[in-house]
Every structure is written in structure tokens, then in C-alpha cells.
UniProtKB/TrEMBL annotation:
GO molecular function annotation: tRNA binding; zinc ion binding
Organism field: Thraustotheca clavata
InterPro entries found in the cross-reference section: NA-bd_OB-fold (IPR012340), tRNA-bd_dom (IPR002547), Znf_RanBP2 (IPR001876), Znf_RanBP2_sf (IPR036443)
Signal peptide: none
Gene3D superfamilies found in the cross-reference section: Nucleic acid-binding proteins (2.40.50.140), Zinc finger, RanBP2-type (4.10.1060.10)
RanBP2-type domain ranges (all copies): 1-30
Protein name: RanBP2-type domain-containing protein
Keywords: Metal-binding, RNA-binding, tRNA-binding, Zinc, Zinc-finger
Location of the TRNA-binding domain: 31-144
Source taxon at top rank: Eukaryota
Length: 148
């Protein structure tokens, strides 16, 4: 069942199945193409022995961290923010929409994935390369619609 939503016009909370507001009949807002994508801060990076994988602990909201296992190059001490897709979000990989789910990768639990420029629809940037943003982008916010 779709998640409940709040009307942008009158702030009425509406059941997820409603396509218009039950109070003012305003249409349900379209979902953001970046729903579930968040600007995150790298807290720590740990190499997983005998693999090319890294386990990243990232802060996705103030005080909330998740572990993401990746083969993308992210080094400890990075001062920039990255973009991640959280559990339940939809990413586009090779033209196919894929839901991000909890998984075990390299023997470690992974609770999301790093997002690359093609997943964001940005011009330039390699597939599989993490998207870095300046620290001016707040942790937990949606990524910008184009490369800064």
C-alpha cells in the first residue's frame, strides 16, 4: 500500500491510496525522481579483507547512520558529502529500474547503495563512481537536479 501523504495546499494528511486530497481535492503531488536518495556524510571506511570492497558507515540523517558495502573508491577522511540510495528507493541501472533492498555483500550487511551520476540523470560522470558534493549540501537532503 502506498505511504500516506500530506497535501501541499491545506496540509491535510491523506491515506496512501487517495489520488487527491480528502479535504480540498488538490491532486497528490508527483513523487520525486530522487525519492529515498540522500546526501550523506562518510563517517568511516573499512576495507573488507580478501575483496575489493569497502564497508562505509554513512550518516544519512542527523544522528542516523547506515552501513553500505561498495566497490566504489571512497577513502577514509573524505571531507565531501556523497549521495546514497536508501532502502526502498528506486535506482536506474543499465536502463532498468531496481528497488534498493537490504543485502549481504562480501559477508557484510549493506543497507543502501552509493549513487553515480548516470543514476541521477546528470551529464558527465562515470557509471559506478560515487557522486561527491560540497559540504554545503545538508545531510539528509535530496541531491540537486544537476551537477553543482
Amino acid at each position: 500500500m502506498p505511504a500516506d501523504w500530506i497535501c501541499e495546499d491545506c496540509e491535510q494528511e491523506n491515506p496512501g491510496h487517495e489520488v487527491e486530497c480528502i479535504a480540498c481535492t488538490a491532486p497528490r503531488p508527483a513523487a520525486s525522481p530522487y525519492a529515498g536518495y540522500k546526501v550523506a556524510r562518510v563517517v568511516s571506511v573499512e576495507a573488507i579483507p580478501k575483496t575489493k570492497l569497502r564497508a562505509l558507515v554513512v550518516e544519512v540523517e542527523e544522528g542516523t547512520t547506515v552501513t553500505i558495502v561498495t566497490n566504489a573508491r571512497v577513502d577514509a577522511g573524505e571531507t565531501r558529502h556523497i549521495v546514497v540510495a536508501t532502502i526502498g528507493s528506486i535506482v536506474r541501472i543499465d536502463g532498468e529500474e531496481v528497488e534498493v533492498k537490504k543485502a549481504t555483500v562480501g559477508g557484510r550487511r549493506s543497507e543502501g547503495m552509493l549513487v553515480d551520476a548516470p543514476m541521477l540523470g546528470w551529464k558527465g560522470g562515470a557509471a559506478g563512481a560515487a557522486v561527491f558534493l560540497p559540504e554545503s549540501y545538508p545531510i539528509g537532503s535530496e541531491p540537486p537536479p544537476s551537477r553543482p
